[in-house]
Specification:
The structure holds 2 protein chains of 2 kinds. By secondary structure, chain A is α+β, with helices and mostly antiparallel strands. Chain A has 2 domains: 223 residues, Rossmann fold; 97 residues, Nucleic acid-binding proteins (OB fold (Dihydrolipoamide Acetyltransferase, E2P), Beta Barrel), CATH 2.40.50.140. In chain A, 26% of the residues lie in helices and 32% in strands. Chain A has a 6-stranded mixed sheet, with helices on both faces. The longest helix of chain A has 18 residues. Chain A is globular. In chain A, 39% of the residues are buried. The model of chain A has no long low-confidence stretch (mean pLDDT 93). Chain B has a single domain, classed as MetI-like (MetI-like fold, Orthogonal Bundle), CATH 1.10.3720.10. Chain B is built from 13 helices and no strands. The chains are: A alpha+beta, B mainly alpha. The interface between A and B is medium-sized, with 24 and 18 residues. Bound molecules: adenosine-5'-diphosphate and magnesium ion. Adenosine-5'-diphosphate (ADP) binds next to helix 1 of chain A.
Chain lengths: 335, 276
């Protein structure tokens, strides 16, 4: 079991207020991703849950028990650090076994568990190597092995893939998700990469400047962003924001349209006219950056190989049901 | 582009390195050579490098005139004792400054280092008087005490930099793995700190072994370590180069041997962190 609940959790470092009251309920077995820009407090919140930092206020419950006064060793959570934080003087086997050794398990049982974990992570040939003799991806696996072998109530990941190259990152992303589903253990995963968040999460927590902006499934966040921040943060390329008369006409201060919800039309009908500034041809998609006069520069995503280049005049038409409206506080207006 | 390393480059830099090494080592070599010369040859100009009349008579004289073992034992006790005590004080001090620093930690470190900026002769008179009043003159205890205090700032600084190099993440990982403070210390921190501890210990031992200001001024015979033993050959009846060289060679031999055997450890400790 690993249900984690935060109630009004706050954290200050001296006079600086970093976490400004976080309320969250993470159900058992969920894969929850904390996402937000760098410096917004993701790591701090994770470390508060781990017990590596003390809360300045509020409660953290694990399976209903308040753990704010419980040391990290006793919370039954395991953590994968961004830097891997492997014990440099121990072999891979020693690294994975360390937690079990601390728990005082019998040797035979430790060996059996370490070998099972190593097999799951394809580490068996490397068990007797030192961390410095491993590649980045392998070190990452050892760090994950160290976390899973203890059968914790929850895994805490702090940007575990950010030191890997792009291809390996995609592969490990899949492996981590698959492993978590297979084990059914609650996981909290911190990243600043919204693509990682969207692809891995059951539920996403969007953090900004120490506040939770929204908590929901990836699709919820994409379809119903609660405010301008979430709307701008989730989705790639970024949502287009338009202010002024075009927004006022729809009863909003700001309207937002995602690049994939704008069509380039040549039927002579209504639309926003503009001139292509840059066209990026990716093969499967084409990204157009269009100067739309008073509306500003709009990003448009077209499927396939559009034969458009810089300087071409285009007419853009937003999908009617896909225009997001925001009031003057930046909050979404629904219905 | 990786720089091309040609055979000629390697040859030239190898030659240069050997040359530099030889120049640095030359005074020691010269001293050892002089110790095997007669007094006359030791003074000769131009000096003869290898083709002189080799003799061990200086060593015999030195052995006859003074008790080498007595001084060597004193050196061992004073250098070893002061090093051990300094380490015992410095480890917890550096530890707490590295792992739970406060706003004033940097200031304290600087203040400690600043005590090394004052020439020791500036406090010779007060220390001499204090020692005299406390009956510490010419005692091993007195020397252990002053050398320990003298080296403490450097020892703390060195240990502090080593401890700082140990990634906090790894200690936190151990905590997450369920290790108590004690076990974290035994299984994780100590093994990672050993190269640093070892090289600090060695360096401090060498410094204390060769320390010549306080040992010369605060001891005469009973507690006199090897530095005093060397000095006794440079004063009374004029200079005797050959004998002085023989005494010096004997004096540095033990530390040279320790240094030789621990050079791998020493180099590893001193470059710790430079290449992870
Ligand atoms: N130990 C600390 N002391 C003071 N400030 C800290 C400490 N840890 C983090 N902070 C500050 O808290 C803010 C959030 O940091 P962090 O949680 O690491 O952000 P993120 O992981 O989202 O990039 C940053 O402004 C950082 O400077
Ligand atoms: Mg972070």
């Amino acid at each position: 079991m690993g249900r984690i609940t935060l109630e009004g959790v706050q954290k200050s470092f001296g006079p600086v207020h970093i976490i400004k009251g976080a309320d969250l309920d993470i159900p058992d077995g969920a894969f929850v991703v904390f996402v937000g820009p760098s410096g917004c407090g993701k790591t701090t919140l994770l470390r508060l849950i781990a017990g590596l930092e003390d809360v300045s206020g509020g409660r953290i419950l694990i399976d209903g028990h308040n753990v704010v006064d419980v040391p990290p060793a006793k919370r039954g959570l395991s953590m994968v650090f961004q830097s891997y934080a492997l014990y440099p003087h121990m072999s891979v086997r020693g690294n994975i076994a360390f937690g079990l050794k601390m728990a005082g398990l019998p040797k035979a049982e430790i060996n059996q568990k370490v070998e099972a974990a190593a097999a799951t992570l394809n580490l068996t040939p490397y068990l007797d190597r030192k961390p410095r003799e491993l590649s980045g991806g392998q070190r990452q696996r050892v760090a994950i092995g160290r976390a899973i072998v203890r059968e914790p109530k929850a895994f805490l990941f702090d940007e575990p893939l950010s030191n890997l190259d792009a291809a390996l990152r995609v592969q490990m992303r899949l492996e981590v998700t698959r492993l978590q589903k297979q084990l059914g253990t609650t996981a909290i995963y911190v990243t600043h990469d919204q693509v990682e968040a969207m692809t891995m999460a059951d539920k996403i927590v969007v953090l900004n400047a120490g506040r939770i902006e929204q908590y929901g499934s990836p699709i919820e966040l994409y379809q119903k962003p609660a405010n301008l921040f979430v709307a701008g943060f989730i989705g790639s390329p970024k949502m287009n924001f338009i202010t002024g008369p075009e927004a006022a006409q729809r009863g909003a201060t700001t309207i937002g349209v995602r690049p994939e919800h704008i069509a380039v039309v040549d039927d002579g009908g209504e639309g926003w006219s503009g001139k292509v500034l840059i066209a990026e041809h990716l093969g499967s998609d084409t990204f157009l950056y269009v100067d739309a006069g008073a509306l500003g520069t709009l990003t448009v995503r077209c499927v396939g190989e559009k034969r458009l280049g810089a300087g071409d005049a285009v007419t853009l038409r937003p999908e009617p049901g896909r225009i997001y409206r925001f009031d003057n506080n930046g909050l979404a207006i629904f219905a | 582009m990786a720089r091309k390393v040609t055979g000629r480059h390697v040859a030239i830099s190898t030659l240069a390195a050997w040359l530099a090494g030889f120049v640095i080592f030359f005074p020691i070599l010269w001293m050892v050579l002089a110790s095997f010369k007669t007094e006359l040859e030791a003074f000769a100009t131009p000096p003869s490098f290898l083709f002189f009349h080799w003799t061990t008579e200086n060593y015999a004289t030195v052995q006859e005139r003074s008790d080498y073992l007595h001084h060597a034992l004193n050196s061992l006790i004073v250098a070893g004792g002061s090093t051990l005590i300094a380490m015992l004080i410095a480890i917890p001090a550096a530890w707490s400054m590295a792992f739970s620093p406060t706003k004033r930690t940097k200031d304290i470190l600087l203040w400690m280092l600043s005590t090394k900026m004052m020439p020791p002769v500036g406090v010779l008179v007060p220390i001499y008087l204090i020692y005299k009043n406390m009956g510490l003159l010419d005692t091993r205890t007195g020397l252990v005490f002053i050398l320990c205090l003298g080296n403490l700032p450097i020892v703390i600084w060195m240990l502090f930099t080593y401890f700082k190099e140990i990634p906090k993440d790894i200690l936190e990982a151990a905590r997450m793995d369920g290790a108590t403070i004690g076990r974290e210390l035994i299984y994780v921190l100590t093994p990672m700190a050993i190269p640093g501890l070892a090289s600090t210990l060695l360096l401090n031992l060498i410094l204390a072994w060769n320390e010549a200001f306080w040992t010369l001024n605060l001891s005469t015979l009973n507690a006199a370590p090897l530095t005093t033993f060397i000095a006794s050959y440079s004063s009374p009846e004029g200079l005797f180069w050959a004998r002085l060289s023989a005494a010096s060679t004997l004096a540095i031999a033990p530390i040279l041997i320790i240094g030789w055997f621990s050079q791998k450890q020493l180099v590893r400790g001193l470059t710790f962190g430079a290449v992870k």
